[in-house]
């Protein structure tokens, strides 16, 4: 309660006539699991990356100063009620957006936007990306800068740089480009990392470089996305994810995803372990800020050393 009051106090302190756009927000996200997903028990209650945050801007005219702070809200018997997620500040105007702090890289964000099951219990975990996307589509990167260009005739560009504070470990850097027009989208992102150490880029352990090529098609009620990642790591890992969503009604969205990982590294675990996954689900808006969902997910690993994950999740997202 004290930390929640602190958030409100910080937001109130920043509110001035020149800073009219301030928002305190949150999401309660949780699921009840059955099947192998629940582990040794028949069922389990899990947190799906619940959060609380503050965001706002300051300035008048074209150029504005922006800030965004978000913390994880642990609703599943955690000893620490609030944990760090991200916090950044920056500038935004006609020349684009520049942010700096602890943040999601552009490489990550292009993947988040394409994954209909992000921050549910689909795949190998109870939050983050579904199977078929790398660890780079998860977590938050320290000591980082990110730039997003304005749209120029359908083209947008992005870049990121994550400073290393460890001797002998390189910084992490990324560049990307996307073209979107007429309901179609094509893009590519590349990350330069350091296989010999963990860079400040989240999910970069033991990866020297990564390239992600993606595409999407919006055909009215139907939306289809494709992602293909190539990692320069111990297993020369490739990851493929194909997903689709269909707005069956104004309140209901159906979703399906297929993910495949090909890795020569027998010691790889989790999202980078060789195997495939299929996930299907339905999302229903009970109220404008309340969504319930049901999904079935099956992750089948090639190696017997990895534990397959199969089961049903019933979840809720309550925003405020």
From TrEMBL:
A single GO molecular function term of this UniProt record: porin activity
Domain of life of the source: Bacteria
Pfam family, one: Porin_4
Localisation: Cell outer membrane
GO CC terms in record: cell outer membrane; pore complex
GO annotation, biological process: monoatomic ion transport
Main location group: membrane
InterPro entries per the UniProt record, alphabetical: Gram-neg_bact_OMP, Gram_neg_porin_domain, Porin_dom_sf
Alphabetical UniProt keywords: Cell outer membrane, Ion transport, Membrane, Porin, Signal, Transmembrane, Transmembrane beta strand, Transport
Signal peptide: 1-20
Porin domain location: 9-319
Membrane topology: Multi-pass membrane protein
Assembly description: Homotrimer.
Official protein name in the record: Porin domain-containing protein
């Amino acid at each position: 309660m004290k930390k929640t009051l602190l958030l409100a106090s910080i937001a109130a302190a920043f509110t001035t006539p020149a800073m009219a756009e301030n928002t305190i927000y949150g999401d309660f996200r949780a699921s009840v699991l059955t099947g192998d997903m629940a582990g040794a028990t028949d069922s389990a209650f899990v947190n799906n990356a619940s959060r609380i945050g503050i965001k706002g801007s300051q300035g008048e005219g074209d150029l504005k100063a922006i800030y965004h702070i978000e913390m994880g809200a642990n609703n599943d018997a955690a000893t620490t009620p609030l944990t760090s997620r991200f916090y950044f500040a920056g500038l935004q105007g006609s020349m684009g957006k520049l942010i700096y702090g602890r943040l999601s890289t552009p490489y990550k964000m292009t993947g988040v936007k394409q994954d209909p099951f992000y921050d549910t219990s689909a795949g190998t975990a109870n939050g983050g990306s579904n199977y078929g996307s790398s660890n780079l589509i998860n977590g938050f990167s320290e000591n980082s800068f990110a730039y997003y260009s304005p749209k120029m005739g359908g083209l947008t560009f992005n870049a990121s740089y994550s400073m290393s504070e460890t001797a002998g470990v390189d910084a992490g850097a990324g560049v990307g480009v996307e073209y979107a027009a007429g309901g179609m989208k094509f893009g590519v992102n590349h990350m330069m990392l350091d296989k010999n150490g963990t860079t400040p880029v989240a999910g970069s352990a033991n990866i020297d470089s990564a390239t992600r090529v993606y595409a999407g098609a919006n055909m009215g009620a139907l939306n289809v996305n494709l992602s293909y990642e190539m990692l320069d790591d111990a297993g020369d890992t490739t990851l493929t994810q194909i997903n689709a969503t269909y707005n069956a009604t104004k309140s209901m969205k159906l979703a399906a995803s297929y993910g495949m990982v090909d890795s020569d590294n027998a010691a790889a675990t989790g999202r980078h372990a060789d195997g495939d996954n299929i996930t299907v689900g339905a999302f229903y808006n009970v109220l404008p800020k309340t969504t319930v969902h049901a999904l079935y997910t099956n992750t089948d690993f090639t190696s017997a050393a990895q534990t397959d994950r199969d089961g049903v999740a019933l979840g809720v997202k309550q925003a405020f």
